[in-house]
Structure formats: C-alpha cells, structure tokens
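Progress note, sequence design subtask.
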C-alpha cells in the first residue's frame, strides 16, 4: 500500500492496553524510541494488532509543534 504521508515509522508492537472503546498501542520504533497511539478497539481487532506484530506508525499532520527548555 502506498500512502501520501511521509512519516511512516516501522516498528513492533510491545503492548496493547484495551479499553471499552479505545486501545492504547505501544510501538518500539526500529530506529529507536517508542511511540504510543490511541485507536479504536475495533481497529485493533480488524488489523489484528497484537504484541510482537510488525506495524508502521503513520503520522500525517498539518501542524507539528517544537519545544525547547
């Protein structure tokens, strides 16, 4: 599948915390670091997301904030 989003970050799911409606998916990125996404429980089920599964975190945003101390 090709996407227009430039920020496609490959990684592996390390945790899935299911709620009633949403789920928190923790992804260890291949390049280092970790990303946490909150998606619907239905999406987790439909995509077969589970611990150990290889996934791509796709970030598409019109605004990205940068902060410094």
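Output:
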């Amino acid at each position: 599948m090709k996407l227009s989003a430039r920020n496609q970050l490959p990684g592996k799911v390390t945790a899935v915390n299911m709620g009633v409606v949403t789920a928190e998916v923790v992804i260890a990125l291949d390049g280092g670091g970790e990303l946490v996404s909150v998606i619907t429980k239905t999406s987790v089920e439909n995509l077969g997301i589970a611990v150990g599964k290889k996934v791509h975190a796709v970030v598409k945003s019109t605004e990205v904030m940068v902060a410094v101390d």
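The longest strand covers residues 7-18. Work on this subtask will continue into the next period as scheduled.
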